[in-house]
Amino acid sequence: MIPFLAEAVLISLSGVLAPGPLSASTVAHGNRSAHAGAVVAMGHGIVEFPLMAMIVFGFATIVDVDALRPILLLAAGLVLLWMSVGMLRLARRPVSSSASDSTHSPLWSGIILTGANPYFLMWWATVGAGLLVRASDHGWVGLLAFAVAHWVCDLVWLWLMSAAVFAGGKVLGDRFSQIVYGLCGLFLLFAAVDFLIDGWQRFSAPI
To answer: Is 72's pLDDT higher than 90?
Structure first.
């Protein structure tokens, strides 16, 4: 089972290390707390663990992921647009006043950005499902070990990311934090536009 877990971790890291909305949100929350990444990872896990269970019990064979792509992309684009506006607003405030903003909790960011990310769902319906099949060769112990190992990859990377940003903010001050919020907000805005355009093109394409 060890060789399989090593392979699974490497495959998982290829997705974990790729920049995306969850990474951008973690960087932004890292301005407030060095441990924000761990909380984001918890929110991510709240969505991811049940999804793994559903795939194991046959959910992926029932739902037509391809047919849902346009709707998933459009919904994700709207969520990302909403979050980008909030982050850009934070970039215009002093960190002391934005720290009390409760609309961007790390836990909810992890839940929302995970559940609204169609590429996350597609990854699990394809690559992730394949890994779960191989994990099942080792029984329930293999499935549990894979699930934990995969999530720990997310936890470690997001935690390190928020800790690094928090340390940078302590050294460079409020201006650094506002720049980080601004850059993350712009990244989410571009991602939102990309998702909306992609979703609309797929939705309006002739069958």
So the answer is: no
| Domain extent at residue 173 | 2-204
Helix (H) or strand (E) holding 206: none
| Rounded-to-integer distance, Cα 177 and Cα 180, Å | 5
pTM of the shown model: 0.75
Residue 107 pLDDT class (50, 70, 90 cuts): very high
Please choose, from the candidates 69, 49, 51, the residue with its C-alpha nearest in 3D space to the C-alpha of residue 60.
Answer: 51
Q: Which two tokens stand for residue 107?
A: 């836990």
Spatial separation of the C-alpha atoms in residues 166 and 183, rounded to whole Å: 15
Q: How many domains does the chain have?
A: 1
Measured CA to CA, the distance from residue 64 to residue 67 in angstroms comes to 5
Using CA atoms, how far apart are residues 115 and 141, in angstroms rounded to an integer? 26
Neighbours of 158 (CB within 10 A): 28
